[in-house]
Design goal:
Number of strands: 9
CATH class of the largest domain: Alpha Beta
CATH topology of the largest domain: Dihydrofolate Reductase, subunit A
Strand order of the largest sheet: 5-4-3-2-6-1-7-9-8
Number of domains: 2
Structural class: alpha/beta
Oligomer: single chain
CATH superfamily of the largest domain: Dihydrofolate Reductase, subunit A
Distance between the termini: 12 Å
Strand content: 15-25%
Number of helices: 6
Largest sheet: 9 strands, mixed
Length: 224
C-alpha cells in the first residue's frame, strides 16, 4: 500500500525555493498540522542544509554508532550514491529527527553500506540503479506503519514523486516576495500540466498565503 504523500514547500510569489528569507516558524507550524508519520528528505537537500544552516558541525561520538532513544519523527532519505557518507550522524543528533532510514540501490557503493552497517542505520535496497520511489513508499508503509509521509525537500525529489503519480496533496506557503532572475522554480521539471483542486487556504500575518491542493485520484499512481 502506498501511503498518503504530502509535498510542502515555502515559495516566493514567482515559485522560487531559494534566495529569500523563509518564515521557518510558520513553515513548520503548517507541517506539524499534517501529523505525518515520517519525513522523506532528498539527499541533495540534506547535504545543502548542512552547508547552509550549520555554522559549527559537531563531531561524531560513540553514541552516534547506535540507534538513539529519543522522541521525534523518522526521516527516510533516498541516497543511492552515498552523498551523506560520514554525515548522517548530524541528523541523528538533531532534536527534530528521531533517526534516519536510508534507501539505497544495488549499485550503492559498498563503502557506504559498510558505513551504514557499522552505525546501525536501517537501510533498504529499493532499486537496481536508482531508488524506486513507489517500492520505497510501500516499504515504509509496511515496515514503519507510515500512513502519511511529508516531504518539504527541494524540487528534485518532489518533482519525481509528482511525475510518478505518488503525491496526494501539495501544500504551498507563498511569501510576499519576487525573486526574479535568481529564482529556482519548485516545479521546473514537471513535464505535463496538472489540474489540481484547492481543499484549503489561509492568510497569515497579513503577509503569507497558504494553499493546500489535492491531486485528483485519476492523476495518482500513474506508474502502476
Amino acid at each position: 500500500m502506498i501511503p498518503k504523500v504530502i509535498v510542502h514547500n515555502s515559495i516566493s510569489i514567482d515559485g522560487s525555493l531559494v534566495n529569500f528569507d523563509v518564515n521557518m516558524n510558520l513553515h513548520y507550524q503548517i507541517t506539524s498540522g499534517f501529523k505525518a508519520d515520517m519525513h522523506l528528505v532528498g539527499s541533495n537537500t540534506a547535504k545543502i542544509a548542512i552547508d547552509i544552516f550549520l555554522k559549527e558541525i559537531l563531531q561524531e561520538t560513540e553514541d552516534d554508532f547506535k540507534k538513539p532513544n529519543k522522541k521525534g519523527i523518522l526521516w527516510a532519505i533516498p541516497d543511492t550514491s552515498g552523498k551523506l557518507n560520514g554525515l548522517l550522524y548530524i541528523f541523528r543528533q538533531s532534536e527534530y529527527c528521531k533517526d534516519v532510514v536510508v534507501l539505497i540501490s544495488e549499485k550503492t557503493p559498498k563503502e557506504y553500506i559498510r558505513y551504514l552497517k557499522k552505525r546501525d542505520y536501517d537501510y533498504y535496497i529499493v532499486g537496481k540503479d536508482k531508488c524506486d520511489l513507489k517500492l520505497a513508499l510501500e516499504l515504509l508503509n509496511e515496515k514503519y506503519n507510515a500512513k502519511t509521509i511529508l516531504t518539504d525537500t527541494g524540487s528534485i525529489l518532489s518533482n519525481l514523486l509528482i511525475e510518478h503519480g505518488l503525491v496526494s496533496e501539495i501544500s504551498l506557503l507563498v511569501h510576499p516576495v519576487l525573486v526574479g532572475k535568481k529564482s529556482y522554480n519548485i516545479f521546473k521539471n514537471i513535464e505535463e500540466n496538472l489540474e489540481l483542486e484547492v481543499v484549503n487556504k489561509e492568510y497569515f500575518e497579513k503577509k503569507y498565503f497558504w494553499i493546500l491542493y489535492k491531486i485528483p485520484d485519476e492523476l495518482k499512481n500513474l506508474s502502476e
